Amino acid sequence: MSGHSHWSTIKFKKGVEDAKRSKIFSKLAKEITVAAREHGADLDFNPRLRMVVDKAKLANMPSDNIDKAIKKGTGELKGGNLEEFLLEAYGPEGVAILIEGITDNMNRTINELKQIISKNGGKVVESGAIRWMFEKKGLIFIKRGEKSDEDMELDLINADVDDISTSDDMFVVESKAEKLEETKNNIENMGYKIDDASLAWIPNEKIDADKEKNYKLFEALDESEDVKEFYYNLNDE
Do 83-132+205-232 and 134-203 share a fold? Predict the structure, then answer.
């Protein structure tokens, strides 16, 4: 088991999500629509859609909302004209930030995010300028306590994972990005209930910087309904 936890990388994000559940539905709906548009509405043949739908259900998103979002993606309903983006920026004191989002108006969204970032002491940089500081991984969260930590760790190692760490009440499992669905299935087949599973940008190294200033920026980014997720290399442990 590693001596550190990648949970802290998205700890802030999850805390904000818990406090603003209603806004999450809008963001999840966009992601469901994009996933359904890419590979269809059949969950058995669309792993990305299945994972987003699972996440939506965990967030208690109404079934009608999920169905409408899928139908927008397949063209049965209007409103599926969405684009994905990855914006790269520096926050206060050189904190690297990757911002993933989905929008129906790219120019408007990018301009709004540039203003948010600039207003909070950061700046947007050209594509590729900081992406190399991160690695795309699969992240899987399993609640501790179903077995002893030692038994759970042994089981998870046998699920062909890259790394395992713990934080609070969670086991955090890393997988290769392309093996996320396979690893998730391996863990579920062992009888464990997965709390969350998704792709994430993990920083190769973390830096020390002013947390208060950066959290102010993170809060502003999270207010945007076009921002799906963001990742950063601030050391906030």
Answer: yes
